[in-house]
Amino acid sequence: QARxxxxxxxxxxxxxxxxxxxxxEIASSIENCRASYGFNxxxxxxxxxxxxxxxxxxxxxxxxxxHCFFQEKIIRGLIEAVESEGLxxxxxxxxxxxxxxxxxxxxxxxxxVGGLLGRMPSEAAAPHYVHPKFIAMRKQADLRTRIVEPxxxxxxxxxxxxxxxxxxxxxxxxxxxxxxxxxxxQISF
Length: 189
Fold this sequence. Notes:
Layout: H1 2-5, E1 11-15, H2 24-28, E2 33-37, H3 43-50, E3 59-62, H4 72-85, E4 89-91, E5 103-106, H5 107-118, H6 122-130, H7 132-136, E6 145-147, H8 155-168, H9 174-178
Helix pairs in contact: 3-5
């Protein structure tokens, strides 16, 4: 879906070290795509490492690999907001279903949040390495951010997504569950 929406941009599949090699075959089947691995409990560090060759002003679309139903209109709205308003981060509201959206970051903002977290006590920083968007939205991050209200999604599309999700969650997810990052539990966080 990402390649179809963005035919000329590089795609980076970024995964924890414990998944090392597991996504290479998928990445190699997609033009201009590569997989990288590292930082088991710090997805932010994985992202920063994956874009180390990009300029500070470059934009990235972050979509969680478990959220494969992101909607083009929503993503394009986020990109448009970042570009037209000179934002560092645009995201959907916290109560919007994550599988339908993503976040659009300026690379310098990812790096800046990484620096901010590096100066915080480990325990306070830990959940933000998993969900950097939350601290990025705070005044202390000194970033230009905005929550972008998504367009209405037609009921027939939502019904189709729900059916696909039901089929996907019929598969055994024990391996993912055993390797989850406790500090990143978004509900308790």
